[in-house]
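Q: What would this complex look like in 3D?
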Amino acid sequence: MKLLCLRCGNSTYFETAVETVLEVTVAEEGFLVDQALYADLDYTAETLRANLTDLLEYTGRQAEPDLLFDAETETYYSRYFSCARCGQDRVAPPLKPPPVEQSLTDELNQHREEYLRLRKERQKYANHLSRLWQH
Amino acid sequence: MQITCPACGNTKRFLLPLWVRVTFKFNTDGSIAILHVRQLESLEDKLTDQGQTSFAITCKECGGAADVILNEYETLKEQQAQRAALEEL
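A: Here is my prediction, written as structure tokens for the whole assembly.
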């Protein structure tokens, strides 16, 4: 689940505005506007999908200060999406558990054994590198 | 009205950025399916606003910014007027 409507609980259907690219062809009868096609690429569809995916990923990464606050439900919501089922614009990325706070020293100590093992492996393999110049 | 690319001379095919409203759904496997696309801007306005706003029509061949000439006869009339004035002299 990437998005959730705060009003109706919908987590499937949403709407948003994204930018895409169309092709303008100058013809004798005037300007023809259509999908931008290259030999092996539908540039219009590609741009649309890429921008939509980017926006979803960006919204997923947003922290609370970047989101808008809804005082009624006391929740944060994204400014970019609206619910396609009920029309509500209070759509939020679902709550995530807060990251575990750990100091850098603790983290280094926790992984010390693993790091030393890795170092030993590197030294072991460093002494047994194949000598390509002898072949 | 004429559209030309000053970099490569292309006068046929150009790319126009456009904002659209997309209705989409999340599939059960996590992928996205697009259900509907509705344009939010008028194509005519976008073409005639060229140079007034920040968007740009670009050349499909070389990617350079294209020039939109709204009235290509404007300069022609000017040239004709100049020629007539010279002939008068």
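A: To summarize the key features: Chain A touches chain B at residues 1-3, 11-26, 31, 33, 36, 43, 48-49, 52-53, 56, 84 (CB under 8 Å). The mean pLDDT of chain A is 84.
Q: Very helpful, thank you.
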